[in-house]
Amino acid sequence: MSRNALSRHALTRMGIAAFALGFLAAFSAPALAAPSKHPPRAELNKGDYELGKEIYEEICFSCHGNKGNGKGPSFRSSRPRPQVFTSSYMKRMTDDYMFIIVKFGKINVLLDKTKGFKLKAATPTAMPAFGEVLEDEQIRKLIKWERGLTTGEKIKDEESAEIFKDACSQCHGLAGRGDGERPRGSQPLGKPFVSEIQPPPMDYTLKEQMARFDDEFLFTLIKYGRLEATTVKNFDYMKAYGHVLSDDEIWGVVRYVRETFINGKPRKK
Question: Is residue 267 part of a domain?
Answer without folding.
Answer: no
